[in-house]
Write a structure and sequence with these properties.
- The chain has about 350 residues and is α/β, with parallel strands linked by helices.
- Helix content is about 35%, strand content about 25%.
- It contains 11 helices and 17 strands.
- It has helices spanning about 15-25, 40-50, 55-60, 80-85, 100-115, 130-140, 155-160, 170-185, 200-205, 290-305, 315-335, and strands spanning about 5-10, 30-35, 50-55, 65-70, 90-95, 120, 145-155, 190-200, 215-220, 225-230, 240-250, 255-260, 265-270, 275, 285, 290, 335-339.
- A 7-stranded mixed sheet has the order 12-11-7-10-9-8-17.
- Helix 8 packs across helix 11.
- The chain is globular and about 50 Å long.
């Protein structure tokens, strides 16, 4: 089997994860990396011994590259994905697929026209508690879905220190894309309507023009209801950056998920302590990367190498974008929005 030639566009925190996974994948060969920050691009290219580009268009012309990861900020996916599809490259796009419905539609259509794979990196489908929940649902152990509550929030570190572009996105796109995908995936249904509220008090006062939180209810076509919550203003004194909990109730059972402890590993030293995320990763264990964030990226390479459809498609990303735009409209207009 010929190895899949791989490139990564966008070398920030999560882009580096894609690079790590591609560099060691048995079916893949990391060919090139790309970023508009020259120092970052050169350092990454040198570290992995691959080609480096400042212009993604130039990288897309490289005939050795079969597939690319698009790991740019939330609002900068469309042009790259469309041009990658037109160049005949398979694409793994970070979530959300796009922040506008028309952009997401263009991206899906471009991939379908070109006959290339478009996968969206909703990596929580590989998060063990949620993957096991889906297995139980499909095995008929729980009956029919009734209602769910999912909370995925971050401390203020994320919008104030980690992301330089927080004002150009929102907690809804950054985190709500995950929870929305999980609800529709586990419930096995598309959204019928949404009702949402949001607030702007803390971050706006700090010069970051984006909502502090969203709380929203999604009614699904199969009758199930999910209440979702995403916040970007939790205090940095919390032991972990991410607060992630969920409850799923069915006609014949329920499931409770608490991922905050990420494997319950805490390390205490004389002058500091660490609460590292060893479940998501990629975490280096015995010289190899593990974690569910790694598994989704690896799955993409597996699918390209074996000519299989991925667990997440571009159309999944399109549906999530439709729902989240309805959430924004509902919060602004203070009324239920039917999809």
């Amino acid at each position: 089997m010929r190895k899949v030639g791989l490139g990564v566009i966008g070398l920030g925190v999560f882009g580096q994860n894609h690079v790590k996974v591609y560099a060691e994948h048995p079916y893949g060969e990391l060919i090139a990396v790309c970023d508009i920050k020259e120092d970052l691009m050169k350092a990454t290219a040198e570290k992995y011994g691959v080609e480096g580009y400042l212009d993604y268009r130039e990288m897309l012309r490289n005939p050795r590259i079969d597939a690319v990861s698009v790991v740019t900020p939330d609002f900068l996916h469309r042009d790259i994905v469309v041009e990658a599809a037109e160049a005949g490259k398979h694409i793994l796009c970070e979530k959300p697929l796009a922040t506008k419905v028309e952009h997401a539609e263009e991206m899906v259509k471009a991939a379908e026209r070109a006959g290339v794979t478009l996968m969206v990196d909703f990596h929580n489908r590989w998060n063990p508690p949620f993957a096991k929940t889906k297995e139980a649902v499909e095995a008929g152990e729980l009956g029919d879905p009734v209602h769910a509550y999912i909370r995925l929030s971050d401390t203020m570190y994320v919008p104030t220190k980690m992301l330089s572009w927080a004002s150009k996105s929102s907690v809804l796109w950054f985190l709500g894309s995950h929870t929305t995908d999980l609800a529709r995936w586990i419930f096995g249904s598309e959204a019928d309507s949404v009702y949402a509220v949001s607030g702007m008090k803390v971050l706006k006062g700090m010069g970051i023009d984006t909502p502090d939180y969203y709380q929203y209810v999604i009614k699904f076509k199969n009758g199930a209801v999910a209440a979702l919550e995403n916040s970007w203003i939790l205090p940095e004194t919390l032991p972990a950056i991410v607060d992630f909990k969920a409850e799923f109730v069915f006609t014949e059972g329920c499931i409770y998920v608490d991922t905050v402890q990420h494997g319950a590993f805490k390390k205490f030293m004389k002058n500091r302590w660490e609460y590292p995320d060893i479940l998501a990763g990629p975490s280096l264990i015995h010289g190899r990367y593990i974690g569910f964030a790694k598994e989704s990226i690896s799955h993409f390479v597996d699918c390209i190498a074996q000519d299989k459809e991925p667990l997440v498609t571009g159309r999944d990303g399109l549906e999530v974008t439709k729902i989240l735009n309805a959430v924004i409209e509902s919060a602004e207009k203070k009324r239920e929005v039917v999809l």
